[in-house]
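Q: What would this chain look like folded?
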Amino acid sequence: MARDGSVVPADPQAMVVVKKKTQTSRSWILIDAMGQGSMLDVDKYAIMHRVQINARDLRILDPLLSYPSTILGREKAIVLNLEHIKAIITAEEVLLRDPTDENVVPVVEELQRRLPKLSDIHQQQGDGKEYIGCQHDAEAADEDESPFEFRALEVALEAICSFLAARTYELELIAYPALDELTSKISSRNLDRVRKMKSAMTRLNARVQKVRDELEQLLDDDDDMADLYLSRKAGSVSPVSGSGAANWFATSPTNGSKISRASRASIATARFDENDVEELEMLLEAYFMQIDSTLNKLNTLREYIDDTEDYINIQLDNHRNQLIQLELFLSSGTVCLSFYSLVAGIFGMNIPYSWNDNHGYMFKWVVIVSGAFSAIMFLMITIYARKKGLIGS
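A: My prediction, written as structure tokens:
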């Protein structure tokens, strides 16, 4: 603003630069109910407007920020943050972040394979064409009854559970031989290998624990699980007129087949009972058991590491005790030899003794007797130490 109160117009180019800095574009892939994928390079405001979620929910999916594993149920979307899988699931489509990541590419391929319904696949192949892969018809028919969001959620849960299980298996292949080698030979190299392996195990254990806690929290709360039934909520809401706000979640022609009979009954009666979340509860429980099994393997590995550390400490204490025993043995021998040296030193001093006249043989006898006494004392200490087990035989 100028001194005279007039408004100074801002530079349009500077405004564009500021806008680009504040609205960083991210790479997304959109997979629809037919399994067709399309790349999206849009900012967060476009995503928020498309799936109708808050900025704090979208912030959870930011790869630059560190958030624990989370599964959030919103009015028209499921916000999914499971390690590298960062997705937004609606009743008709899936938005997956960073589709070019090497860990996300298998998830995209699996979504494109499993999201299309069996009836849609037959329709795509045309009339008169025989469906290939008839051996999977029974499995596909079971999945066909599940809502779209549950099929997408199952793919994500299966991918993250398999990923963590594979990392655990790789760690086990490295850890157990390294621990066995350490018990056979304690060296700086082996200790450093075990230290790095234990650090990797601690980090992996924390990641698995977060996923397990999130699934356990969902299973303990029926209301949170009910929020994940997007198709049921979309079917119970009256459609919005064209003059109103954009309806991003219009009911698809095949939406009726996505909802189970229990869900249809709950929509018709518009009330929630304990059977509403049974389908989702069974789905989450299956993967909860799988991730819990992975966590148990890591806990077993941790216990094996702790047992190895206890064994190493016992070995080190044993070596330390042996050094102390050797030091005590050598100190006892030194005391015995010092007595012999004391007698020899006294008689070897250049001091005239009146009783030494004409008795030169006394020196030799005293030296011999003191030496024999020192030897006998040292032998007695040695025998006593062996009886007490202080030194080996």
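Residues 1-25, 127-141, 237-275 have pLDDT under 50 and may be disordered.
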